[in-house]
Amino acid sequence: MKAFLVLFGLIATVQLSLAVFGEFKHGDKNSKYFKKEPPLRATKPVAAVDAVYEGWIKQRMDNFDPQNTESFYMRYLFNFENFQPDGPIFIFVGGEWTVSPGMIQFGHMYDMAQALNGLLIYTEHRYYGETRPTANLTLDELRYLNIDQALADLAHFIVTIKQTFPGAENSGVILVGCSYSGTMVTWFMQKYPHLIKGAWALSGPLLAQVDFVEYQEVVSRAIHQVGGENCSNTIRNAFEQMETLAEQGNATELQRLFKLCKPLDLNNDLDVWSLFGDVASTWSGLVQYYYRHDRDIENACEGLELHKTNTTTDLEAYAQWIMNRWRINTCYDHTYESFLESWSGTSWDDWIAQSEWRQWYYQTCAEYGWYQSSGSEEILFGSNFPVNISVQICSDLYNGFFTPTSIQGNTDRTNIIYGAKNPSVRNVYSTHGEHDPWAPMGLDANENEDSPVVYLPGESHCSDLGSIGVRDTPEMVASKTRIFELVQKWLGIPPEQQKTLPPVA
Ligand SMILES: *[C@@H]1O[C@H](CO)[C@@H](O)[C@H](O)[C@H]1NC(C)=O
Ligand SMILES: *[C@@H]1O[C@H](CO)[C@@H](O)[C@H](O)[C@H]1NC(C)=O
Ligand SMILES: *[C@@H]1O[C@H](CO)[C@@H](O)[C@H](O)[C@H]1NC(C)=O
Ligand SMILES: *[C@@H]1O[C@H](CO)[C@@H](O)[C@H](O)[C@H]1NC(C)=O
Ligand SMILES: *[C@@H]1O[C@H](CO)[C@@H](O)[C@H](O)[C@H]1NC(C)=O
């Protein structure tokens, strides 16, 4: 298995074909990491898949340059089975992933649309999925990939749909987005308030920041709180012991423990950072997508504890546990060089484009940073994966174009244009999960009366997409009820005509 990444995506990264893992070598086709949509849990599809249609709309390549006449087609999905003329339009805004029908077949947005006879739409973000504006993904061709363009695409889309979809001319538009698309809906309201009535932003980060030290702080806190003190102690001890071995120059012991394919060169910072980052980042996924009923953190902690019965040190237990988790039978390739090689493609057919990492990583270098480093003392994972490695990846993946200074300048630009945690919006309902490592970058105080911010205890990233369910916490039910009330208020539905939604089993 190749070194994977020191950056955990905003949305889930899934490992394909785990079952056929066996031989690990760099570039192994089985060790692909794909981005996928945010999780829509708990309920089964309400609408049939053939209720969902695909459409394509012509967009300008550059929305801000009238002299550029190039264009491309943007994909969207729609479901009008419940739509009545003048009913509202609910748009789930696609982020850095490929759209699929599920998002407009069920879930809380679906339920709201169904109750209000709304039209359901799911838009695909330029450069993701099948929406491919350019011939390839070389640095030069990536110039039209940014949120400013994506929001302008959405604006043009909304105006066009209202003009052309029968019965939609007078429809009010509600946007829903989660994760990066939660960011998008908030900023859409800021830039194009005349086009929508309101927005629901789930787990959207708003503050661009290069060194995102808070991420692993939340991860560490969640492990401690949910997995227990023994678990967090084991992890902390393991990383301390790992750092001690590195300080003592004991590369052979680290090589043995982590079944490294190649000797560990302790003088090569990038290799060391890559190793420590990989070994830590397993917990990112567990916490970011934690769901009480699946008990993933608890199970991982119990698994780790089991290994302690056979081993003498916490590091040995941790190493055994992680080799097991990654299903490493032969060896694990930790080197930065192999990582770079496997991430180096620029064609749409390369896995790094299909996994959408090339596009998303570019956006982090050009707009947000958000590198989940070991820069805080309040984490369980030591201090051996500083932000430097992520910044180096920006330089190495895109022809040396990005530098630490330019990346800082790019995040500053984003914060200046969109206002970071002061977006000055109306009618945006923002939700965050208590254990969501992205929450520290999100809105943390009510913007105004009609733009409240709600923290959901015990939940993580994008965990409130599903229907109101019988297994939801009271806080979750209250939040989903509130957004439905707000949506109806924003649409101008008089109080006596407003509806409520019952829980779904
Ligand atoms: C990428 O596409 C551009 C525009 O079509 C083309 O000029 C360039 O040669 C391509 N580069 C690669 C590496 O395919
Ligand atoms: C925590 O570890 C201590 C010492 O090894 C042990 O006695 C205790 O049972 C453990 N607690 C849990 C909840 O596993
Ligand atoms: C490396 O660490 C192992 C385990 O602690 C120890 O047995 C070995 O002697 C160490 N080797 C060196 C060269 O320090
Ligand atoms: C502990 O060692 C025994 C005997 O070698 C083995 O059967 C068992 O699977 C090991 N447990 C773990 C958690 O590795
Ligand atoms: C990280 O990079 C900065 C410059 O961008 C440098 O000052 C610092 O020493 C580097 N840190 C490490 C641990 O190499």
UniProtKB/TrEMBL annotation:
InterPro entries assigned: AB_hydrolase_fold, Peptidase_S28, Ser_carbopepase_S28_SKS
Example GO molecular function: serine-type exopeptidase activity
Residues annotated as signal peptide: 1-19
Domain of life from the UniProt record: Eukaryota
Alphabetical keyword list: Glycoprotein, Hydrolase, Protease, Signal
Lineage: Eukaryota, Metazoa, Ecdysozoa, Arthropoda, Hexapoda
Official protein name in the record: Uncharacterized protein
UniProt similarity note: Belongs to the peptidase S28 family.
GO annotation terms (biological process): proteolysis
